[in-house]
Structure formats: structure tokens, C-alpha cells
Write a structure and sequence with these properties.
There is one protein chain. The chain is α/β, with parallel strands linked by helices. It has two domains: 196 residues, Alpha-Beta Complex (Quinone Oxidoreductase, Chain A, domain 1); 130 residues, NAD(P)-binding Rossmann-like Domain (Rossmann fold, 3-Layer(aba) Sandwich), CATH 3.40.50.720. It contains eleven helices and 17 strands. Strands 3, 4, 5, 8, 9, 16 and 17 form a seven-stranded mixed beta sheet that branches. The chain has a six-stranded parallel beta sheet with strand order 12-11-10-13-14-15. A two-stranded antiparallel sheet has the order 1-2. Helix 4 packs parallel to helix 5. The chain is globular.
């Protein structure tokens, strides 16, 4: 039986979204169809809508922070079933057979499919994905706020696990926004001493409420110099170029500067600034399905949730303009 999905699509870059109807085709034997209850709006949605990364195909239905209920399941689906409330993030599938997938690093699969790249996402009434990326929502996680955990949340949680951050570590978070406000909560409950780096003193009190024990103004050169060599791990959540040498100077021996914010400009670093202290620069996408499940359990255990503002799905253009204007505090969620 033919299906018709209804959503909101960008027809061209930098234009308002328009209502769209489309046929998703046959449901794959390992795929699930999710009735969308809510969908977060991420800055990556804006990047795709505006084709900032040069890989957008129009019409484009964005939205990759989906919460919904499975209403159809292929005959080879495992682990989830019709009626389950699940979340879906950036990835909608991976090959499940390559060495990377078989080692549990599905998010690094060279043949992965992304929810809004070459397929339509969650700014719609329904969306599809491989069963492995439809993650059940545990009790204790509020479905109305959970969508942003499936992109913003796992983006900052995964490197805590993958980089071996320890509870005894002194860590820093650059940027107190959609990603950073979650990173502060995670790292605080992980047991770390957490410093928030911000260029705005107005965010200091809120950063401390979110979990930072200290706040360092990145524009205060003297304060940055006094903190030299004191951080084991610094997480950059911003998408703008900064003085990266100043942050490398803050790292302790064997310290890591880790990027999750998509800075488009090259990162200029002097080799000797890394060599002497065996310092590292790294980056990562989201996490594996297993790490997503761990994150959700961690959120339920420690009562961690995104700070969200809610818009109706039909007001998606108003929500997008709110995000473009930098007014989001800190994640936006569309309710179907």
C-alpha cells in the first residue's frame, strides 16, 4: 500500500521551509517507520538547509533529533517493536558488516546513512530508519525534552567515554550553548572539576548552575595564562575559529583538545606546542547505538535534560529564525 508522508522542506538554500508531501517508497525489511511526536532543531539542520557543507539535496526535509513511536516494522527488525517510543539522531543506518560496525563503532561506518543526507528527516509526520538506530527511551527521560539528546547530547557525551575522561580530571568546555550546556551537566555528574570557557561574563552564573565549578573569560589574557598547563581535557563545542594555541597552552601533559563543533576554517597549530607535552588534538561525530543507550541511562540516573524551548511543527520557520538570531536557550523542540 502506498504511503504519503507530510513535512516541511527547504526547496532552496536560505529560503523558508514549505509544506511538502512525498512517497517514502517501500519499507525495508530491517527498517522501522516512526510516527513523529517531536523533533529538535539543531544548528546542523541550518547548515544543511543553507548548504553550508556543500552536500544538501533539495527538496530537503531536515530534522534529526526525533522522538516518536514505531508504527511499522520490517520483518527482519530486531530489538524494537511496533508501539515502542524511540529516539533517532543524525544516523539512520550503518552497514552492520564492516570491521568498524562489527567492533561496535557504527557511527564511524564508511557506508553509514544520515537521517537528513539524501533522505528526508524529522520535520515531518513520519520518518524511517534502520532498527539499530531507533533507540528506546528509558523511564526517567522526559520525551518532550529528549530529542536534543540524540544529537547535541550524544555529541558531547561520546567523547567523554571515547577519550577516557576520568572523574579525577580537570576539564573545560568551550562555548555555553546548545552543546556546551549539556557537556557541563555530563562532566559535572561524571565527577570532574569543570571549567566553562565563555567570552561573556553574563553567562557565568548560569554556567555554574549547569555544573561548572569555575568560569574563565576567554578574553582575559592574564587569566588564561595563569591557567596554563592545568587541564586534562578541553571540549570545544563552538563552530567559529578561536585562538587555538591559547587553549593548547592550557593543556596539561597528555592533555587533549577535542572538537565536536564544526569549525569550517583550518585549525592552525604549531607542532612544537603539541610535541613537548605529548598533547593531542582530536574530534568525533556522535556515538554508537550502545553509547546512546548508556547516555540515556546516565541522564535518567542523574536527572540530566536539555534546556528547551517549544514550538509547534507548523511554526517551524519561526523556530528556525529564533535559532538563526542566536536566541535559543538552549535547544529548540518542534511538537507535532
Amino acid at each position: 500500500m502506498a504511503e504519503t508522508f507530510h513535512g516541511w522542506a527547504a526547496l532552496k538554500a536560505n529560503e523558508a521551509l514549505q509544506p511538502i508531501s512525498f512517497d517514502p517508497g517501500l519499507l525495508g525489511s530491517e527498517d522501522v517507520q516512526i510516527r513523529v511526536e517531536s523533533c529538535g532543531i539543531c544548528h546542523s539542520d541550518l547548515s544543511m538547509i543553507d548548504n553550508e557543507w556543500g552536500m544538501s539535496a533539495y527538496p530537503l526535509v531536515a530534522g534529526h533529533e526525533v522522538i516518536g513511536v514505531i508504527e511499522l516494522a520490517g520483518d527482519q527488525v530486531k530489538g524494537v517493536a511496533v508501539g515502542d517510543r524511540v529516539g533517532l539522531g543524525w544516523f539512520a543506518g550503518s552497514c552492520m558488516s564492516c570491521r568498524t560496525c562489527m567492533s561496535g563503532r557504527h557511527q564511524l561506518c564508511g557506508s553509514s546513512s544520515q537521517t537528513i543526507v539524501g533522505r528526508h528527516g524529522g520535520f515531518a509526520d513520519r520518518v524511517r530508519a534502520h532498527w539499530s538506530w531507533a533507540i528506546p527511551l528509558p523511564a526517567g527521560v522526559d520525551p518532550s525534552k529528549a530529542g536534543p539528546l540524540f544529537c547535541g547530547g550524544i555529541t558531547v557525551f561520546a567523547p567523554i567515554v571515547d577519550c577516557g575522561v576520568k572523574p579525577t580530571d580537570r576539564v573545560g568546555v568551550i562555548g555555553i550553548g546548545g552543546l556546551g550546556h549539556l557537556a557541563l551537566q555530563f562532566l559535572n555528574k561524571w565527577g570532574c572539576h569543570v571549567t566553562a570557557f565563555t567570552s561573556s561574563d553574563s553567562k557565568a552564573d548560569e554556567a555554574k548552575q549547569l555544573g561548572a565549578q569555575a568560569v574563565l573569560n576567554s578574553r582575559d589574557t592574564a587569566a588564561m595564562e595563569r591557567a596554563a598547563g592545568s587541564f586534562d581535557f578541553i571540549l570545544s563545542t563552538v563552530n567559529v575559529p578561536l585562538d587555538w594555541s591559547a587553549y593548547i597552552n592550557l593543556l596539561a601533559t597528555d592533555g587533549t583538545l577535542h572538537f565536536v563543533g564544526a569549525v569550517l576554517e583550518p585549525v592552525q597549530v604549531a607542532a612544537f606546542s603539541l610535541i613537548g607535552g605529548r598533547k593531542k588534538i582530536s574530534g568525533s561525530p556522535l556515538g554508537s547505538p550502545a553509547t546512546v543507550r548508556d547516555m540515556l541511562d546516565f541522564c535518567a540516573r542523574h536527572n540530566i535534560a536539555p534546556q528547551t524551548e517549544t514550538f509547534a511543527m507548523s511554526d517551524v520557520n519561526d523556530a528556525i529564525e529564533h535559532l538563526r538570531a542566536g536566541k535559543a536557550r538552549y535547544r529548540l523542540v518542534l511538537q507535532a
